[in-house]
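okkk here we go again. third time trying to get the zinc ion bound version out, last two times i messed up the smiles copy paste (missing a bracket lol). double checked this time i swear
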Amino acid sequence: MGGTATKVRYIGFAKYLEDVTVEVRVKRDKAAMAGIVTVPTCPYDLKPMKVIPKSGYGTRKNERTYKCPTLHRIIVTSSENGELRGWM
Ligand SMILES: [Zn+2]
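finally!!
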């Protein structure tokens, strides 16, 4: 694997997900715009997730939507300086 892994806690409203953390890996990727790619691990089936390009609807600046191969979706939020804050 490699890269830096961060545990991100749940910040949504579903009680049963309160203790579920998502592991997010930041990997180098020459093809990515920023030279790195952020890869959350799906909290439901532990598969690597891919970012969904912004639709412009319901997404704020510091929120990114990710989906896994079986189409679970999560939103990962970050602060202004890019620090990961939580998922929902
Ligand atoms: Zn999944």
